[in-house]
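Lab notebook: predicted structure, single chain.

Context: the supervisor wants predicted structures on file for every construct in the current expression panel, including those that have not yet been purified. This is the next one on the list. No modifications to the sequence; it matches the entry in the shared construct table.
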Amino acid sequence: MSYAQTCLDRAADGSQVSGTAEQIRGPGCSHSGFGVVRAAAQGPQLPPNVAIERITPATVPSFRLVIGTLLPIRYPDKFFAESVSNATSTSLARVAVLHEGNRLVKRKRDEPSSVAEAKPKDAVFAASTATGPSNAQDGDALGTVIGGIQCRIEQLPYHPSLSTSSNIPDIPSGTKSYCYIQTLALLSPYRSKGIAAGLLEVVITKLCQEQCYAGTATIYAHVWEENDEALEWYFKRGFQVSKDVLKGYYRRLKPDGARIVWKDLGVNDYLRAQSR
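Prediction complete. Output recorded below exactly as produced.
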């Protein structure tokens, strides 16, 4: 049984995924047929030698290398230009940078290895090659880009969860703002350490804090239908999983379908953002 079906079964019978220190159980969301796991108020804790920084022209090549190694999608030059086009505090693009000093302990072989959109290749080698200067605000110290996230704000006439439905209901005129996760990737030796969750948390915090994102109350992504680890990762962080599959989304993968995962931002997200 796939993890997506497990999520649906748990939601249907009222049960929830048991949380860790980073996730706690809470009330369900109003969207029918799905359960929600709420994040703890303190949010994820990063390793002491990892920093989440804005993407700069100096770190774009490393960011590009990491994404190209892990994901089956070839992003155009425009995508990476947009990574630094809004290099301000409100930007929704970030990289995780490992700074010299204490080494992270490599994950065990039986630990989950995938939190990106698709099952990654063996990307351990990229950790030693994807190097570049970190954000200038951190003193231009050399660091290693080990992952990143990039999102965009979209105007849609309907909730993203309806994208896979063949029976979209009548929609009133006008659009609403939604945050779309274009990419979220992390090299395999650094997973299960709160780093990917930290990247996601920075984006959610910006959505809740910045006036320019007022009215954006949902964040969502596409996940390959066979990537059970990624579906589980999102589900444990409060995302809901679409019942239906969007066929033909991944041209390089077989099967080629994607599920929509989404999170409607709630009180806990805003309270946590205000505490930062």
